[in-house]
């Protein structure tokens, strides 16, 4: 008998997504953190040192609020296969909220896939691990 074995590939641990990430546009820092079994992401800084107000928010009263400290990723859960899904991401650039799933590519790279309705019709961005801004 001939046995063929594939190389073992293990999914990242559930907390591999935790930490500070620089967005694809290299403008903002988002810290992904966990509360119980749910993962969230909050704005913790910007590359130019100025965090803007949420001027595109669909709720008029929130347009004067600063984005610093605001949760923009909510409701993610780890699927055990290297993906965090079932959550949403708020995009302050257009004021819209999208479904989101995250995949850790390696220790310093995260694929963030945002979509409306069906994941097939979304876009994937590469985020990179960063140090928390001071």
From TrEMBL:
It comes from the Bacteria. InterPro entries: DUF2147. Residues 19-129 form the DUF2147 domain. Gene3D superfamilies: 2.40.128.520. Pfam families: DUF2147. This is DUF2147 domain-containing protein. It comes from Stenotrophobium rhamnosiphilum.
């Amino acid at each position: 008998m001939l046995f063929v074995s594939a190389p073992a590939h293990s999914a990242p641990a559930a907390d591999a997504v935790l930490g500070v990430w620089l967005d694809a546009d290299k403008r903002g820092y988002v810290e992904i953190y966990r509360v119980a079994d749910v993962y969230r992401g909050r704005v913790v800084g910007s590359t130019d040192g100025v965090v803007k107000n949420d001027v595109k928010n669909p709720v008029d009263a929130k347009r004067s609020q600063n984005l610093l400290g605001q949760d923009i990723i909510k409701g993610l859960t780890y699927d055990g296969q290297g993906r965090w899904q079932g959550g949403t991401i708020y995009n302050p650039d257009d004021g819209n909220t999208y479904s989101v799933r995250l995949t850790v590519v390696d220790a310093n790279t995260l694929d963030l896939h945002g979509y409306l309705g069906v994941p097939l019709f979304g876009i994937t961005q590469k985020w990179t691990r960063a140090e928390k801004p001071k």
